[in-house]
UniProtKB/TrEMBL annotation:
Superkingdom in the source lineage: Bacteria
Name of this protein: Transmembrane protein
Spans through the membrane: 16-37, 129-154
Keywords per UniProt: Membrane, Transmembrane, Transmembrane helix
InterPro entries for the chain: MT1774/Rv1733c-like
Organism: Amycolatopsis sacchari
Length: 180
């Protein structure tokens, strides 16, 4: 196949760069997936190493009533309330936990305790860790693709500048040939 005389070397270079960029973006998919998978595994290992156990606390006071804006929109559905709970050794601990607003005194509320018996945040759901891993992979791939795409656009701008300079020279030569 004979090369098209209308396609200049700079046009061929741009086409080759585009093929290279597409290949790079596609090749980045397994690396991004591996990074997301490693993030998931690391988070899961960190959660497994966290020493938490479920317990039940009894509210020692009423939780504050629901708070709403003047437009009637609820502000925060949870509030800090004084409660008591039993530790693994049978002793009782009193402290502040988070409970739904409007919960009455004496209500039993599930809590999570650390190794020292202090309330901690509940462990994430297994699906939450999957979402973190998938989003990490996706954002890694998108970030890499944006950088590579930006580099391609920058190189294309330089190639366009070079093409315009070539056209200017060709027009100047054409103009000189027409001038008597």
């Amino acid at each position: 196949m004979t090369p098209n005389p209308l396609v200049r070397p700079v046009d061929r270079l741009e086409s080759a760069l585009l093929v290279f960029v597409v290949a790079l973006v596609l090749a980045a998919v397994p690396f991004a997936c591996a990074f997301g998978s490693q993030t998931y595994a690391d988070r899961r290992a960190a959660e497994a190493a966290t020493d938490r156990r479920p317990a039940t606390a009894v509210l020692l006071a009423d939780a504050p009533p629901e708070a709403v804006t003047p437009q009637g929109v609820p502000l925060d559905s949870r509030a800090a309330v004084v409660a008591a709970w039993q530790l693994a050794d049978g002793s009782e601990r009193t402290g502040t936990i988070s409970a739904d607003r409007g919960t009455a005194k004496g209500t039993r509320v599930p809590v999570w305790l650390d190794a020292t018996g202090n309330p901690v945040a509940p462990p994430p759901q297994p699906g939450d860790l999957v979402v973190v891993g998938v989003m990490t992979a996706l954002m890694t791939w998108l970030g890499f693709s944006a950088v590579v795409g930006g580099a391609f656009l920058a190189s294309r701008a330089l190639l366009d500048r070079h093409r315009r300079a070539l056209w200017d020279r060709e027009w100047a030569v054409l103009h000189l040939r027409r001038t008597p």
